[in-house]
Design goal:
With about 425 residues, the chain is mostly helical. Helix content is about 70%, strand content about 0%. Helix 6 packs antiparallel against helix 10. The C terminus is likely disordered.
Length: about 425
């Protein structure tokens, strides 16, 4: 008799709640610029501050999260997200909005760290007939990306019809955090002690590959989010589209992202990780240059849709590569948090590049950076990103090593943070 599969919906829901803020970044930055006495660069700086707060939470949870259980951390993060984003949505005072964005961002980062830690531990052996879904972190990551893409796409179609003001997207983030709260009851209240020696706890496998990937991720994430943070302005100011049209393009683009996520999940490890990461990043570079130079609806839509089709595919393989470096999630935490730093700098970098070189010049710089960073990421994937062995159903009597389920009880010392959009 084979062990039944269990869908890790609490992890998926936390993943989606944590990632939603970066996905809504264009409309958040655009509405801060339009609805508050802020310049475009200042609005981009607020977006960067939100994401930097999220990255900081990832580092802190990585360093100290083992002392607390995933349920406690998840609920604390959701509470901070609801209070921070909700408070920012209800006020028009710039200092209060900034403070709320920082608090909400810290909550989002905490939630993402809990979800990523659980996903990194999905490969543990079965326990008492219960096992993680497919025992494959890549499949769970693609499911999380699928959910957050669908949710963000629906919000991009809805928010323009709810009226102007900066509060609508922030309120959506707060309500999402509240909606996910009930699912935290299925998380463990405490962290299970790791069954490893002190020497093993202090040793990081694949040290050179991990450091190279951690050094490359800030640039990769920065280039992605520099464009994403100003995409709304490109559509409004350079392509001369209305907010509803821009929102529709983003919704369709995120729908394409859903197709990309489904394709990545179906493809799985068949091509390894080097081709999706290296080749996909090179294709993304071309999409970034095209989208940034768009002057009409056709070019803008094609660039954004193509880019959003490829982005979650590559991201899912990068997350899987980081998780494969260390099954306890330590490289996932370092690589993900390093990527989050690049993500945080993206909106401000995009605003500064656009102000100095124009949108087309910004796109060329970002495309060149992506092409350059694709090389070390591909090298890492070639060295340690070999295709994963197929998942087989194990009879219950052959499960010699008891382990804990990836979300019904806590993963062993594996709290991680992944790079956001």
């Amino acid at each position: 008799m084979s062990a039944p599969r269990t869908l890790p919906w609490p992890l998926v829901a936390l993943f989606a709640a944590g990632y939603l803020a970066p996905y809504l970044l264009p409309t958040i930055v655009g509405r801060l610029d339009a609805g508050l006495p802020l310049s475009a660069t200042q609005a981009g700086a607020v977006g960067s501050a939100l994401l930097l707060s999220s990255a900081t939470a990832g580092f802190l949870v990585a360093a100290r999260g083992e002392r607390l259980g995933p349920r406690t951390l998840a609920r604390a993060g959701l509470a901070l997200a609801a209070l921070g984003y909700g408070g920012a949505a209800l006020t028009g005072a710039v200092p209060a909005v900034v403070a709320g964005a920082l608090i909400g961002g810290f909550g989002s980062g905490t939630v993402t760290a809990v979800a990523a830690g659980g996903i990194a531990a999905m490969g543990v052996p079965p326990r008492e007939g219960v096992r993680a879904w497919g025992r494959d972190p890549h499949r769970v990551t693609t499911l999380g990306l699928l959910v957050v893409s669908a949710l963000a796409g629906a919000l991009y179609l809805t928010i323009p019809h709810l009226g102007p003001g900066h509060g609508r997207p922030l309120a959506a983030l707060a309500l999402t955090a509240l909606a996910v709260w009930p699912l935290t009851g299925r998380l463990s209240a405490r962290t299970a002690p790791a069954r490893t020696s002190r020497a093993e706890r202090g040793r990081l496998p694949h040290r050179r590959a991990g450091l190279l990937l951690a050094a490359a991720m800030p640039c990769w994430s920065l280039a992605q989010n520099a464009l994403w943070g100003v995409s709304g302005r490109i559509g409004l100011d350079q392509a001369h589209l209305g907010e509803a049209a821009v929102g529709a393009v983003f919704a369709v683009a995120l729908g394409a992202g859903l197709a990309g996520v489904v394709g990545a999940g179906a493809l799985g490890p068949r091509l390894g990780r080097a081709v999706p990461i290296g080749g996909g990043t090179a294709l993304i570079a071309g999409c970034v240059a095209l989208s940034a130079s768009a002057t009409d609806l056709r070019a803008f839509a094609f660039g954004e849709i193509s880019w959003n089709l490829l982005y979650p595919v590559v991201l899912s393989y990068v997350i899987g590569l980081a998780a494969s470096l260390d099954p306890r999630g330590r490289w996932a935490v370092l690589v993900g948090s390093a990527g989050s730093l690049g993500t945080a700098a993206g909106p401000l970098t995009g605003s500064l590049l656009a102000a100095g070189a124009g949108f087309p010049g910004m796109g060329q710089v970002l495309a060149a950076a992506l092409l350059g960073v694709a090389v070390p990421m591909t090298v890492v994937a070639l060295r340690v990103g070999r295709p994963l062995p197929p998942v087989v159903e194990l009879p219950l009597e052959t499960a010699a090593v008891p382990a804990r389920d990836a979300y019904d009880t806590a993963p062993p010392n594996s709290y991680a943070s992944t790079s956001a959009r």
